[in-house]
Amino acid sequence: MKNYLVRIPMTGVIEAIVTASSEEQAIIQALEEVDINNIYEWKAHKQIVEENTFHGVQNEAQVEHLICMDNDELPEIKINKDWDQFAL
Known about the structure:
The two termini are 23 Å apart. The C terminus is likely disordered. The protein has one domain. The strands form two sheets. The chain has a two-stranded antiparallel ribbon with strand order 1-2. A two-stranded antiparallel sheet has the order 3-4. A hairpin with a 2-residue loop joins strand 3 and strand 4. By secondary structure, it is an alpha+beta fold.
């Protein structure tokens, strides 16, 4: 038997609620604030891109405008802890 160090590529989605003046500013602010604890969904892959096919979870930032009267109405982010996701 041999020992191996294996590095597996992964893709995922991190969610954050931020207050910003524009969608672009919201993305910038979220990128500065998030960490591994904000992971919403992730997958491990044998290969992320194959020819012109992307096998990842999501390939670009998305912004959703939340309409709330005040911060007390902001939705709670439910983190997906279904860590058994694995794709080969």
